[in-house]
Amino acid sequence: MKKLRLAIQIIYTILTNGYLYGFLNGKIYQGNLKYICVPGLNCYSCPGAVGSCPIGALQAVLNEQGFRVPFAVIGFFFLFGSLPGRFVCGWLCPFGLVQDLLHKIPVFRKRKRLPFHHILKYGKYVVLALLVCAGSMFLFGGFAKVPAFCKYLCPSGTLFGALPLLGANGQLRSQAGLLFFWKLGILLVILVLSVKVYRPFCQYLCPLGAVYGWFNRFSLVQIHWEKERCSSCMACKKACPMDLSPEEISVSPECIRCGQCAAACPEKCLHFKK
Amino acid sequence: MNFWKNNKGCRWLAGVLAGILFLGIGAVQGQFDIIWRKAVMICLECIGIG
Fold first, then answer.
1. Per-residue DSSP letters for B21-33?
2. Which domain holds residue A233?
């Protein structure tokens, strides 16, 4: 299961960031595929990106003059949320893959959660409400509204967008200032933390995870728990990187559908729903 | 209410239909053009310059 998931994460990341010309020349793809949002957090200023980031797209619509309900992006949220739900986080998201790989580095004693997890886990909802929504509607840079999440927080944009672009494009590199180093600092903190704690950005900060988590109770992709067959050995909880118990797995907004619980269950009473 | 309680397994389908409806409304309002225009320009804020 782990190898299959890793393979799918890598293939998906390559497919959605496969515009090699962009990496070589410090430019971005400008074709029609960018009308469509990809399911994961994937900066559209990544030189290889062939689709749009749903959070970036949401902010782009909210940044327009006058308020408009961002129906198109909400439509993508409903589609992706209702079908795969947070399976996107576990199996597709490129930044999730980066954090997964870092967590495999055999240094530090590993932790599944940060202290005060029960409070910190609401951070992603705060980010969604304040930075993505309110920030994009009410924060101005000059006369224009700014995509506050992308500008001040998004580490995926720094890793997949800023670093390759600035590496290949000298003109952009010469303009990098304080804001870039602020974002670079955030990225470094999250990457270093990922070596010790499992997916800290996904657990505590990702606004897309907050959106998809809302759909977890009824999305098509579900992990089903057969309670009557369960011997309560808690092998699933030990295997779960999010530290969820079997009764939480099928309904919790924190479950990323990685399937490690199903692989670990000796009674085979946890499985992807058929 | 009973319909939704008895058909929990189909709620994802309602979500998909709602998604298609929202996408349609967004398309009519020209929101895909807004998304595309933003996505094909290098986002200076995203890369920490703007």
1. HHHHHHHHTTHHH
2. 223-274
Q: Do A274 and A166 belong together in one domain?
A: no
Measured over the CA atoms of residue A273, residue A258, residue B46 and residue A29, the dihedral's sign is negative
CA distance A251 to A262: 15
Contact A212, A89 (CB under 8 A): yes
Paired strand residues for A225: A270
Q: Is A182 on the interface with B (CB under 8 A)?
A: yes
Shortest CB distance from B35 goes to which of A61, A77, A175?
Answer: A61
Which residues lie closer than 8 Å to A159 by C-beta, 6 or more apart?
A95, A98, A187, A191
Q: Do A133 and A237 share a domain, yes or no?
A: no
The reply to whether residue B25 touches residue A175, judged by beta carbons under 8 angstroms, is no
Are A169 and A260 contained in the same domain? Answer: no
pLDDT in tens, A57-98: 999 999 988 888 999 999 999 999 999 999 999 999 999 999
Closest by CA to B35, choosing from A210, A32, A206, A41, is A32
Angle at A239 between CA A226 and CA A265, to 5 degrees: 35
A16 and A115 fall within a common domain: yes
Residues A103 and A212 in one domain: yes
pLDDT at B27 over 80: yes
Taken as a whole, chain A contains a residue count of: 274
How many beta-carbon pairs under 8 angstroms link A with B? 161
Tokens encoding A267: 């009674």
Helix (H, G, I), strand (E, B) or coil at A85: coil
Same domain, yes or no, for A20 and A46?
yes
- ipTM for this prediction: 0.89
A195 and A229 in one domain? no
Which residues share a beta bridge with A223? A272
A233 and A168, same structural domain?
Answer: no
Distance from CA of B3 to the nearest CA of A (A): 15
For residue A198, how far is the Cα from the chain centroid? Answer: 13
So what's the pLDDT on residue B44?
Answer: 87
Question: A130: closest CA among A188, A178, A62?
Answer: A62
